[in-house]
Amino acid sequence: MTLFLSLSIIKIETNMIEFLKLKIKELQLQIQIITLQIRILIMKKNFENFALALRIRESSNNYQAVNAYGFLGAYQFGLARLSDLGYTERKPGVSGYANSSFQWRTGYSKEYFLSNPDFQDRVFKEHADNLITQIKAKLTDYLGKQINGTEITLSGLVAGAHLAGVNGVSSYLKGHYDNQDAFGTKVSSYIKAFANYNLENV
After folding, report:
1. CA 104/CA 96 separation, integer angstroms
2. Under 8 Å between Cβ of 182 and 69
3. Which of 46, 51, 45, 39 is nearest to 76 (CA)?
4. Who contacts 71 (Cβ-Cβ below 8 Å, separation ≥6)?
5. 151: burial class by Cβ within 10 Å (0-12, 13-18, 19+)?
6. What confidence tens digit (pLDDT) does each residue in 138-197 have?
7. DSSP labels, the chain
8. Half-sphere exposure of 21 (CA within 13 A, CB side)
9. Beta-carbon contacts of residue 90 (< 8 Å; ≥ 6 apart)
């Protein structure tokens, strides 16, 4: 009986140690996120800090993140968007926009993408440049206006388009529908959270 109790106590203590280790890791991650958020607050609202804020929101600034739907990296890119930018292509005879409908072009791969932060940052800049061009061509009339208590800014629209595409942003601005992603995050929340960064000289 004494041996059994001793073994039970050891098992409980081992489980408690593992639990505490997990909690410490969670706290360390939260401290990292808070530190990055403070950095954003005290620094200029430029493109670099816009990108940092988006990385924190999308993946806790984890360049190797892969979510449950297969979105990749610090910015959580889908393969359909990477196809627009020239890094993936649609599989022959396959329709739709799910990640499974696309494959990597020669010279690129999931492993390469996840292991190269500089490459992800470069892709995000190309992505943002493209969104800015589309927004300025289609949605300039909304810039500076107030919609549902939120000022519409270029950076807010770029963030919203990163979440739901330019058409998704346009739908919200026109009062049709506040699109949301698979996790329930709405376009309006991104437009508000990422307002007033200076993206004019990206």
Report:
1. 16
2. yes
3. 51
4. 77, 78, 99
5. middle
6. 999 999 999 999 999 999 999 999 999 999 999 999 998 998 998 999 999 999 999 999
7. -HHHHHHHHHHHHHHHHHHHHHHHHHHHHHHHHHHHHHHHHHS--SHHHHHHHHHHHHHSS-TT-B-TT--BTTTTB-HHHHHHTTSEEEPTT--SSSGGGEEEPTT--HHHHHT-HHHHHHHHHHHHHHHHHHHHHHSGGGTT-EETTEE--HHHHHHHHHHHHHHHHHHHHTTS---B-TT--BHHHHHHHTTT---TT-
8. 6
9. 83, 101, 102, 103
Q: What is the pLDDT of residues 85-121, one digit of tens each?
A: 999 999 999 999 999 999 999 999 999 999 999 999 9
Contact partners, residue 182, CB within 8 Å, separation at least 6: 69
Q: What is the pTM of this model?
A: 0.79
Cross-strand bridge partners of residue 180: 186
